[in-house]
Write a structure and sequence with these properties.
single chain; about 120 residues; alpha+beta; Yope Regulator, Chain: A; 4 helices; about 30% strand
């Protein structure tokens, strides 16, 4: 599901307006974060944004599907990520709005990090 170099560059160029972004490998694609939380991913030549129960319907109404992948037991849907409609990707104003919304959702639904208890230090 590796995106083409052209698609990746096109998406990142379009997202530049929302600020500094960090990218990294994410399974077979690319994860996109604002430095704090991952709010998007590119799988194949598709861009997916994080959704919640309130925004999922907006994506579904435009005909978009959740990210899914095939396993030996069948197709698995990852309903946390929905594909971004092409008309949003190509409209800079809408893209900024939907991206900021996805960032807020990713931030508010982020699981708290678990800290490992450190061992007590003893003076010798």
């Amino acid at each position: 599901m590796t995106p083409s170099a052209e698609y990746k560059e096109s998406v990142l160029e379009r997202l530049e307006a929302i600020g500094s972004l960090k990218i990294g490998r994410f399974f077979g694609g690319i994860g996109i974060s604002n430095g704090f939380v991952q709010f998007a991913m590119i799988m194949g030549n598709s861009l997916y944004f994080v959704v919640d129960d309130d925004t999922r319907q907006k994506y579904a109404q435009t005909g978009m599907q959740p990210f899914s992948y095939q396993t030996k037991k069948g197709r698995v849907q990852v309903r946390r990520y929905f594909e971004l409609p092409e008309e949003v990707l190509t409209d800079p104003i809408q893209l900024q709005e939907w991206a900021r919304e996805a960032m807020c959702i990713a931030d508010s639904t982020q699981k708290p990090k678990r800290f490992v208890k450190s061992e007590k230090l003893f003076k010798l």
